[in-house]
Each structure stands twice: as structure tokens, then as C-alpha cells.
Write a structure and sequence with these properties.
Elements (H helix, E strand, L loop, with lengths): L14 H14 L5 E4 L8 E5 L5 E5 L13 E4 L6 H7 L4 E3 L5 E3 L7 H9 L1
Antiparallel strand pairs: 1-4, 2-3, 5-6
């Protein structure tokens, strides 16, 4: 990756460099990898978000900010997701997240009116 610099010593990246970077980041979190930020024990689910030039880059599903964003701050991990915000977003509509991270299925199942009428006739 070539990184020409301007007179103010600010790194200038080409579009090809940005696309290569985005591709590297997506590959890093492929195959069901989860994400941890820096040395944190919190494990996040991964979501791809639009970035510069329309490229997709991985980020925490809960949108936890990564201050001083750098590729090295995001580490791939294989442990289960333990971020409460990510777990809430991953839960199905029938489940409710309870304190202590336990899931509770819905008490009653909603049957749409058309289905209910067809079931009552039979």
C-alpha cells in the first residue's frame, strides 16, 4: 500500500487503499467472528456499516464508539456475545432479555385475525 505524504506530513490514501483496507477488515471478521474492542472482555456481535466510498466495514452491532478508531482496536474473537446491547438486538421478537442475561420466551403467542378465523372454522 503506497502512502504518499503532503508537505504537512498528513497521510493521503488513495481510493484503492481505502477499498483494500475495507476488504482486509471484512476478511478479518469473516466466518462468524465476533469482535472485542482493544483489551476489553466485552464481546460484540459484528455488523457491516457503510463507510467512505460506499465500502462496508465491520463495527460493533450496538454501535459502541471506538475512540481513536484504528484497525488494531478491533480484535476478532470466537467467544459468545456478552454485550447486553448486542444481545438485545440479536434476540427474536418473542424473546425478552431479562436481568442477568437470561432470555424469556413470550407468554402468549399472537395469532393474526385471518389465521385465527381459518383455524376456528376447521
Amino acid at each position: 500500500m503506497t502512502t504518499p505524504t503532503n508537505p504537512l506530513d498528513v497521510t493521503v490514501l488513495s481510493v484503492a487503499d481505502l477499498r483494500a483496507f475495507a476488504r482486509e477488515m471484512r476478511a478479518k471478521f469473516a466466518d462468524g467472528q465476533r469482535m472485542s474492542v482493544r483489551d476489553s472482555d466485552v464481546v460484540h456481535a459484528v455488523d457491516n456499516e457503510r463507510w467512505l466510498m460506499g465500502e462496508l466495514v465491520p463495527q460493533p452491532l450496538c454501535h459502541t464508539p471506538v475512540y481513536g478508531w484504528s484497525p488494531g482496536a478491533l480484535r476478532p474473537v470466537r467467544r459468545p456475545v456478552n454485550c447486553e446491547k448486542c444481545r438485545r438486538k440479536l434476540a427474536s421478537p418473542e424473546e425478552r432479555l431479562l436481568p442477568y442475561g437470561e432470555f424469556q420466551p413470550a407468554l402468549f403467542t399472537y395469532i393474526p385475525p385471518k389465521t385465527r378465523q381459518a383455524a376456528d372454522v376447521a
